[in-house]
Fold this protein.
Amino acid sequence: MEFLTAGESHGKALCGIISDYPSGVSVKKEIIDNELLRRQKGYGRGGRMQIEKDEVEILSGLRNGFTLGSPISFIINNKDWNNWEDLMTPFPSDIKIKNEEKLVENPRPGHADLTGSIKYRFNDIRNVIERSSARETAIRVVVGSFSKQFLKNLDIEIHSFVTGIGKAVLKDENFLKNPDIDCFDKADKSDLRCPDEKTAADMKSEIDKAFKLKDTLGGSFLICIKNMPYGIGSYIQWNKRLDAILSYYLMSIPSVKALEIGNGLKAAVLKGTRFHDEIFYDENKKYYRLTNNAGGIEGGMSNGEDIMLKVFLKPIPTTMRGLNTVNIRDKSRQTSIKERSDICAVPSASVIGEAMSAIAVMNAIQDKFGRDNMQEIIENHKNYLRYIKNI
């Protein structure tokens, strides 16, 4: 499956196209809209979330609730468009104000502003801001929901929860090592998306402090992929390795700066006899492990254990205090622009992380079991599980 996104943050709408999505998948619009709602929630979000109430409109590729195998296209209208229409109008003849008076010339450190304006030869950083904005991830959440609904047919589940915001970090090993459905339910009920109430309270305090200081915070979240069969991904080519594919998708999320698979950080300091997950066999369980330091991936392939991914985000570059920067027109020393933004978007990012993981996993699943029709994929999957059960 491939997808494209288009649209500006304050443009009329965001849109997306999905291709190579199998026919015969039952897709429910309310599930997609609920995923969009999950993305918009979270303590520390900015004023934009009070304006936008995202809802998807499917334009093609479905009939009577089932996919057709043809390209799927959809849009999300920007409700803030009315406030930006004069500034963001596509054609010069429609301009009602002097845009020269509203040029953005002070790039934000940590954002795409300066490099983007140099690369594309803009004298107005607004042209970079509008497309590099994390607002684009709303489309990715829609695509991720399509992927999740595909994976549900194979009993593959993808969940997430926040593990850290600023100095407030979740330390309970029961949540971190072997999270269950109760853990994910608690996270979904929390406005910090953290399953532990004490840690969530500490995270909220961190955000409140940052707000008073007119600053921003980063953090981390954990993604858990359950019921992945053996052998998804491959060691045959570098670009078929499942860990590489997941990394590629997750690192594309704005503000993500690092990814840990399993206990990857400890791998650098532990001896091999302490780190690697020993293999056991039981007639009922078949092959299994007592530990999961590898995070469910060995040799670029899923090994039957839960896939565990920890994602780390930098603080949001847009701060109300501003940072030292240089005006791109006259090179004078300036303070970076104070575009409307969040204090912390880690809870929202965890939902985006689920979406991107679902897309990556769906692609790897299609490589293994086919891509034309859902029923055919289900049958191939069942046959493979039957083979594994008999080894």
